[in-house]
## 1
Amino acid sequence: MTMDNVRRLYERFETDKELRKKLYMAEGKDAREAALREAGLFFTDAEFDEMIDPLHVKCQTVEEAERFFEFRNWWDMLRRS
């Protein structure tokens, strides 16, 4: 399920610096999607948006919520570039 890939990317957000670097370096949507496919994490923008609320609800502490919002803002910045 590709929406689950959003959760998997979120879980790898802080630890997988190489993947983050590839996504930062990707020029445009097609290159970003290729990097996600290579990592086995492809999802659409609509699927990302659909997973926002379920991921946010799982936050149990302020720190988890801050980490979640950092992830969400990071992805929003990438997909708008």
Note: Residues 14 and 67 are 9 Å apart (CA to CA).
## 2
Amino acid sequence: MGLSKKTTPAGTRPNRNAPRAPRLAPGVAARLAATTALMAVLVDHRPLDSAVDATDGPFETLDPRERGLARAILGIALRRRGQIDDALGRFLDKALPRKSGPLPAILHVAAAQILFMDVPDHAAVSIAVETAEADRDARHFKGLVNAVLRRLTEQRDAILASQDEVRLNVPDWLYERWVKDYGAETTQAIAAAHLLEPSLDLSVKSDPEGWAEKLGGIVLPTGSVRLIAHGPIDALPGFAEGQWWVQDAAAALPAKLLGKVEGLDVADLCAAPGGKTAQLAAAGAKVMAVDINEGRLQRVRENLSRLKLQIGTIAADVETWQPNRLFDAILLDAPCSATGTIRRHPDVAVLKRPADIKALANLQASLLARATSMLVSGGTLVYCTCSLEKAEGEDQVALALASLPLVLEPIRPEEVGGVEAICRDGFLRTLPSDLPNAEPRLSGLDGFFAARFRRL
């Protein structure tokens, strides 16, 4: 089984009497899938989730155990990409050949296991060589794969001891922006938080203490239930009954800032994936969920159906959508760089560039203006992004106040569980290093920004 696609010539059918391909040795399928997905991120610049969830992709045929292993490898390969680059570079005299197929991903997948996973060294090396052998472009370099990885195993401890893990794993441009905006000490804390595998956060319809006890988790000051989950999420108690939904604790805060919404007409703009939509519906609002992507909106409908919550939906571009009424309240979760979600989505650090932030900031300003035009006089607008960039947060607020009929309503700590650290200058500003816990896996938040306005 190679990493290069093989197609059947047009007009022919596969020979069903031909010998079947030999069954892959244990663990090889997971490494092949991880290698292919990593190539999709690094070379094709595709989000990791789209590469993993593709119905025609390599993950589709994996059993649950292999799928879990492949996801774990990918998480580490991306989360620790800077360290892996540094380690491999010590044994490569020059850049890898351009026509070497998935060779870079093969080395990264193996190095992630050798450096950071409890995998026997000989297995990681031999499977990497086998993976290279299976590809027509990479097979010419299987000797290089073997030599580099064996040297890596021999010098692993010395290499790890010499590395600055916090600094190496953040792209220079992001690190410099964060130092400018937050200072060196806070930037170090953010970068350190990104190296930890995040917990599973749930928003519950009711009784968070009871669900925390049932699921073996804790209740955060903000009201979310947090646990370290193992195994399929849909197998956890309460999922099938629609008692809770997965939502980072930081992402659960902006909807709360609209206050009491029972009976109000509320628009949830750019609604997918739908966690905030569920919060508003559960609080008794009459919700219209709007998203430009019909596929993502369909998943919102399916999730809300599981939760037994009623909403209205419309697939539309918020920049051009003309609603037939004004809304009492609006939640605008604007498209953004998502740099606040790197702890959950480490591919963001690979995929985003400074130019993306500038383009997204322009879009956010346009969406804020459109949202304001849909709001009744005296109505409440909450603007939020899952970004650490001030260009997508505080700077947008300054622009809106200067150009739109809005006034700022400061956010108070008591509205978000009394956590003063996440209320900064009247805004909600959560950082990955917030909510520390003695158990590191139970600490942290996604980086979110939110501001609340009242229309004049």
Note: The chain has 16 helices and 13 strands.
## 3
Amino acid sequence: MQVSSLSAATPVALQKATGGHARAASGPGSHGGHAPAPPAAPESIKVSTARAVKFRQEQHVPDSATHITGKDLVERNVRAMTDLIRVAPNLSIQPSNGSAGLNFMLRGVGMADLTQNNIPSVMPYVDGVALPVTVMTSAIMYDMDNVSVNPGQSGFTHGMTTTGGEINFHTADPTSQFHAGVTEDIASYGRNRVEGYISGPISRSVSYRISGMSMTGGGFQHNSQGVGYGNADIGALRGKLKWQIDDTMRLDVGGHWSTDQSDAPAGAVMVNSYGVPSSTDLMQTNWGLSRQFANAIGINPANQKPRENNLSWGANVRFTKDFSWGRLTSTSAYEALDEHELSDQTNTALAYGNMYRNNQTNFFSQEINLQSRNPADRLQWLVGMYYNRGRTHDSFWYDMSDRYASSDSGKYFYKTDYGQNEQTFNQYAQLSYRLIRGLRLIGAISHESDDRQLEGSKNP
């Protein structure tokens, strides 16, 4: 949009008098001891603006994805991963059996995974990097640029093949000008969330962005003795570096770190078959732990609260090269998780349904794709390959002492321990051709191999 304005008014010239006063010269007949000022040239003002394409306009593109801007996330108070269900239709996100692991379901397609060693049916991606273990997503919802929720089968244009769809999180990028900001969100039950960022140039071609988030409090539950429960204790940092090497090459480097020391998710016991008194107080939950179980997993028996003790970190490098006929993109990433979680899956004061998880997982992924550049071409094409290697060592400890006390002398608990090596290799291609305006034929093919081995599985 351009707006131009041309001044047509008669100019008025001001002259500075010797006495320090301003004297107006209104025309050639003025007398003041000074020569009349020459008429000023007509003033011309030209205002130009460029109307950028809004991310929200993507909602009008004929596809099935839901696009949510970072501004919308803030205005709708989307602070945690589970808050996405308020802004994304047909999306369900629930904790898995009172753990930090999340079960994603999109349009009714998903998977309930307790073991955390399976590829989810709805895959979360952060800046193009897949997070196959959903515990890794617990502290990513800050400094977001946009989120896209894509239902249906995926893996034909990038990443891994999934049946339910994918959720793409794009964090805010470095800026060419200096920007900084801090926000604090205080809510009921002592919940406090602080988020901040700093972004700007290092040189003409290099820029950076550093952001962080801290969330504490918010626990609204209590046990039968009135001890408060449910407080969050999450901290996270993220850094991004962008190097525009030249007009055709760009290098992006990113890294993140997060810690979660929150109380584990819990529910209220309403109906059960174990003879535990139920409660009509929706704010009440309970927990209990046998001393033998606490000693076995190496925690203090005096602190029986279900809780998280998780650490997640990762780094990624993306290189982009533009040619006259296409664009080459290479993405390398490493993600690691160290999880220690104590949960009470029955929410009762008795010692049964208690679980302790010790999970160390890491993933390395490499993706290369090549695609056409000019969106005006009738023929559009894309080919690529994706490789993911995962290593997992997981231990489950279960305590069912009180339930089987009569038959096992109150010492019934067991451990499941296993390791898993996994490799996924996906090759994909997509072609589309515009027959006439508004009509385009699209075809895609994908071949994925998934190789997994369980090592040292035992259940003493």
Note: The helical segments are 70-75, 291-297, 405-408.
## 4
Amino acid sequence: MCFALFTVAAVETVHSFSTAKTNATYQTVFASVTSGIGSIIGNSTEGLIIDYFNTAFLYFILFLFCSVSAVCYGAFHISSRKYSHPVEQSV
């Protein structure tokens, strides 16, 4: 709850410091400082995918990423159980 209120207040504060011409730049700098450059690149890429293709294609790509991640996690989990040694407990 606190983070949501902070974000709303911060966006409004940044907006109050900017002019009509600089608002987008100030909001982008705020987003890069608080959320990181990865979210900006990801959101821009998703926007381009939606512009050139459609939303269904974006969700299909996200489904593929999630599926590959789940398979990799499963493979890692199985391989770590196969090669793990029980920990001996000292009394």
Note: The radius of gyration is 22 Å.
